[in-house]
Amino acid sequence: MKIARFSHNQAITYGILDGSELVVLAGDPLFAGFETTGARVPVSEVTLLAPVIPRSKVVAVGRNYRDHAAELGNDVPDEPLLFLKPNTSVIGPGDAIVRPALSSDTQFEGELAIVIGRIAKNVAVEDALSVVFGYTIANDVTARDLQRTDGQWSRAKGFDTFCPLGPAIETEFDLANGSLVTRLNGEVKQEAPLSDMIFDVPTIIAHVSEAFTLLPGDVILTGTPAGVGPFEAGDAIEVEIPGLGILRNTARDA
């Protein structure tokens, strides 16, 4: 089931994707369940928004693909390497990624994102998938030059617009056979099976929950494969995960 958050007639609401229409939900499904209003809206008449705006946090995993760690000259971590992105960095499909004037090397990083569905702390690996509401697509935009000079990643990863999410949340997704492709102006830059992750989704969730209490609507980014690179104003970046859709954003300068 695909859940979208959208704007229609100056109202923001949620719906279940059913072909070319959205079945309108009575509230946020993370908190109100899947009760419908009975209304249906054509997808062509709405503006899709980020499918979730985390009330608490976005937790991300660095260097979770060996080839990506290698391309940046980094060692593979012994456990998931965590950092945070502020919820103010979240934008939706079609929104502009703003390249900050402070950076001359802003890069894309296509990723699978996990949306948490219930409060979770110290979750066992074998129980980890039970706290998942669904999955969506993310672009972990990074000011690579600032990441190098700052010595930590908060600013480089946390600018406004640096966490595109979307286009929808899929509540049922085949992790074992998933794959990711990132295109810059139509040219494939990243392509890898999700099985190439060093730490899989249950391991990531369990590890994150040791440090942070996970809340409904929290998002976990699972890392990016090799092929990351810079983009310029006017460029179009597409991250595709079959079964989840395509997250497309264009870039502009601040």
UniProtKB/TrEMBL annotation:
Signal peptide: none annotated. InterPro entries: Fumarylacetoacetase-like_C (IPR011234), Fumarylacetoacetase_C_sf (IPR036663), Rv2993c-like_N (IPR018833). One of its GO terms (biological process) is carboxylic acid metabolic process. Gene3D superfamilies: FAH, Fumarylacetoacetase-like, C-terminal domain. Keywords: Hydrolase, Metal-binding. Residues 1-51 form the Rv2993c-like N-terminal domain. Pfam families: FAA_hydrolase (PF01557), Rv2993c-like_N (PF10370). GO terms for molecular function: acetylpyruvate hydrolase activity; isomerase activity; metal ion binding. It comes from the Bacteria. Residues 57-250 form the Fumarylacetoacetase-like C-terminal domain. This is FAA hydrolase family protein. It comes from Microbacterium oryzae.
